[in-house]
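Meet our chain:
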Amino acid sequence: MHLRKRLVLLLLSLPSLAVGQEFQRLKTHADSLMAAGYYDKAILFYDQALFNYRSNTESKANAKPPATDAEWLDVLIAKADATYKNGTQVEVPDLYWSLRYFSAKDKEPPMPQALLRYKGLKPVLKAKEFRRLKAEGDSLKRLGKSKMAINAYDKALQQVLSYNAVVNEFDWQAALYEASDTQNALDGLHNQSSYDLNAKYKKLIQTMPQKVAELKQKGINKIISFNSQFVGGTGTMMITEMSFGKMGFQNANYTHLIWLNGNDIYMQAFSDKNIRPPFKMDAPALRKLLRSYFDEMLNENIQKARRKIHHEQYYVIELYPTGPEIKVVKYQESDMRDPSPNIGQRYFQPSDLDTYNANIKTKLHQFELLASEFIWTYNKLLRTEFD
């Protein structure tokens, strides 16, 4: 803070520049620092640009503002962006004022740069609202105000179920089970295991077949699931993921459901142990693939290589078109592995090269690559602390 004040005082001691010129200089320099990844330094210069704007518009009523409202908003959101990326605490009243305003008015920022930052930060803002509502529910529950606590928990959960907020998985599970426990107490179910969800929340949290049925009922017909698991030489599944729920960490194997609704793409993960929260995500390449080639993928298959490997990845892709049928594609890592270096060795056949070349040209293979990247991003968000 002292460093920031010294920089501002130094700035004010410099010769006066034309109205708006200093604001633009500070903004441009901050943008370049932001692009280079120097978020802490970018924050200082965004601060100076905002100070320049305020000092010229508030103290000189008749003076021409150094920037338009849209440019000021762009800097405000850029500072929020830099603060978030720098991993420091975001000052909600200052940095997110514009986001709150536009959310309340159901509008979007007028400038392209501000709009991009707004869309990227909006789920983070909603995540903060989720945490606030969850904390409010916890406080009310401790005070014995169960109905008010349920109301707060339900509002928090709805932030996620409406695809507005991207939240940490631990926070999601905590809100879900605290709400369930509180509802059990209200319903007089004192012998109900705290590990079992109340009927109200079981209905709220759908299984994957229920989710697919709901999506189809809404007319969504580009739905696809992806499962990947490592299998050992005995044919037994070797768990590579952990699930966090009411009972803590448990072994789990997740199937990731992906669906396209208009221009928006969504993901949710399901296992027999746990159901993870749904997110709306940014995946333009995967969106383009599903929009343009979903029908082609319905008619594709993966050829089987003659040689197999004892310890390798197994994949299952399921496509859900219009109607009750499900297209299921199963294959192994070896079906997609280039056999060229091993031709002539034991278990490898020249025909495996033809199989490999045919498989890697399929849209199903493109989907595997894009979905794997998409899942990595989804899982990273599930482990991110947003406060």
User: Anything to note?
Assistant: Residues 208-382 form one domain.
